[in-house]
Amino acid sequence: MKNKNSSSNEQPTKRARRSDEDSQCGACTRLFSQSSLPKLNSKAGLAHQTRNACEASIKNVCDLCSLICKLAVDEFGSRWGRHHGPIVFRNFNSIKGSRAAVYTLRGTLENEQGCITLYPFTEHGMVIFSHHSNLCTDHGILDDPLGPSISRRPIVRDVQSPRVINAAKKLLYECRSQDKPSEGHEECRYSRDTVLPTRVLQVGVNEGEACPIQLHINDRDRCGSYLALSYCWGATDPTAKNNLVQLEKGNQKHLQKEIRMEDLEQTIQDAVYMTRQLGFNYLWVDRFCILQDDHEDKKREFSRMAITYKNAVVTLVAGTAKAASEGFLNIKPSNNEPFLPSRKFSITMEDNRKGIVYIPEKPYQPVHPIDTRGWTLQEFMLSSRMLIFSDHQLLWQCKQTDLQSVTGDDDGLEYQQGLESLPWAAFEDTAGPSFGAHDADKLYLWKTILRQYTERDLTNPGDRLPAITGIIAELQNVWKDTAIYGHWVEWFIQLLAWQKPEEDRAKERYLSRAPSWSWVSVNGKIHYDETIENEDAKMEIVTAAKATMSCRIVSGDTIDKHVRRTMDQYFDLDDGAQRLETKGKVCHYILLGTAREFERFENAIALIAIEIKHRVYRRIGLAVVADTSIWEGAKHRRIELEPKQK
After folding, report:
1. What phi, psi does 435 have (nearest 5°)?
2. Contacts by residues 246-253 (CB-CB < 8 Å, ≥ 24 positions apart)
3. What domain of life does the native source organism fall in (predicted)?
């Protein structure tokens, strides 16, 4: 998995572009020539070009040389500049007897570690080579002159063939290795057989026959292995025949007797099918394992979300479905285009015919509807293992293995995960040093979680805190700390310095949901741009009901207008809502502490607040102030931050 900010995602320097009718240099053309195959298939390989020669070809506008050069700089760094020899390419193919065409080209430098990889595709041909690959291939019998030279074709979606299911089972076995736990993945050891959740769907298979689906109530702390489902609820399809939408107090006893498959929404049906295919008996689905009309049950089960996903054998992720009614195994033809890289290169063959080769220039980052849902972030971050039903392939990710196809990257798709999962060392309750042992680690981790979480959508904005409760509950156990409305007591002053992006200021503040000092009180994105190095304010009392602090505070009407112009002020609400909130009120600036800028300068970080009643203040924004002297004459005094409204 590539880092999402890596150079592989940088855009190439703008230069003259050639049309698809223009061809590449001779060295690049030879990579796809039939006459070059013996060398490409040999141990010695086929020499391409040195860096100087590549750069000369780039000046002559060889686009493929430009891509090769970029990949080489990313992989070899300065060694590529110092090396005087050419990159040598060799052909690799995992399909037995298929070395009669180019499949995967790996380029190396003599006596240097590392390699660059090219996955060439040609477009024509739609015969599925099902026993070995989900590539469309006709071995070049159509009109593309490159067909006989390149065996990889567009990737047809395959998430449930026997080949794919068996590959997923193999990954699960290797990761868990229950027969030999010492051989399993060390970082994924948390989900051994454990006590089942309060409720699970029993979906198993008995002697090859599917058993009736039943709601199982685990009132005896029964242990076992179960799968979990992560999916988008979405809107209910009014035209659908299935009418069983969720678990409620009124239907719980009925569901314990039997649940008909056809009564379930398509995503739940698909999850039941895959649970059986993978050989498991139990499936946890929030909609059917939490009483949706029981506030106390929801509250209790939300607090257990972390352990539920953490202990699941694997989480099935319905990546492509926008709603539970859509399903994730079979998607609409309009959304099921075979994968072909967008970057294409014209190659002039030995007989002067021209063909087109497609080569990915960077790892593929899937974009799924589920990635925008607030609830699913903690499901992603807390799951030990995931099988992601993506737009082209079934993907695997665990705490030790980066995002990949279950069948490996040989099909030509290298993946990049756009999200950061939680390092499991953060959840280790050990005496020794580990990730999260230092405040800086914890702050970085929590700020990362909040940034990713608040970028997502919630169908019910009132779930802003409940949808992250699972992560909070798990971290509270390990950090031995308490989170009050999403703020850890240990770093309370630091975490008050959140801000709203200018383009996403809130339209309203929900004080019945949380106090104004908490990011939970507003909808939308928040982030932390400033890290306070020296705290000036001190918290005295921090509870859900009350937050008091000793701090220095100055009134906005005492600040020189020239100083005020140099202040960066980030208000929580948009202009219209802010004017209403501050009408007739004076802004006050509560000094939280200072942050260093460019090692030489210090900025003051302050809450912008209005006084609601005597010494009770409501946060309305954050200020970064270059002139820290405005607080020099102020003395520390005790104030209260406005509590949540009842």
Report:
1. -60, 135
2. 246/287, 246/288, 246/292, 247/199, 247/215, 247/287, 247/288, 247/289, 247/290, 247/291, 247/292, 248/291, 248/292, 248/293, 249/291, 249/293, 249/294, 250/293, 252/215, 252/291
3. Eukaryota
Q: Percent of the chain, pLDDT > 90? A: 57
Q: What is the DSSP string of 304-373?
A: THHHHHHHSS-EEE-TT-SSTTT-SSS--GGG-PPB--S-EEEEE-TTS-EEEEE--SS-B----GGGGB
- Residue 282 tokens read as 């139990």
The radius of gyration of the chain's CA atoms, rounded to the nearest angstrom, is 29
Same domain for 132 and 204, yes or no, is no
* 472 belongs to a structural domain: no
Residue 290: is its pLDDT beyond 90? yes
β partners of residue 570: 622
Q: How many CB atoms lie within 10 A of CB 629?
A: 9
| pLDDT score for 592 | 98
Banded model confidence at residue 269, pLDDT cuts 50, 70, 90 = very high
Paired tokens of 455? 């970028």
Q: Is residue 501 assigned to a domain?
A: yes
- Both 568 and 604 in one domain: the answer is yes
Stated pTM of the model: 0.80
Do 199 and 148 fall into the same domain? no
Residue carrying the six token digits 């390149």: 150
The answer to whether position 468 is within a domain reads no
Write out the residue range of the structural domain in which residue 600 sits: 485-641
Report yes or no on 264 lying in a domain: yes
Residues 272 and 353 in one domain: no
What's the pLDDT score for residue 335? 67
Contact 570, 622 (CB under 8 A): yes
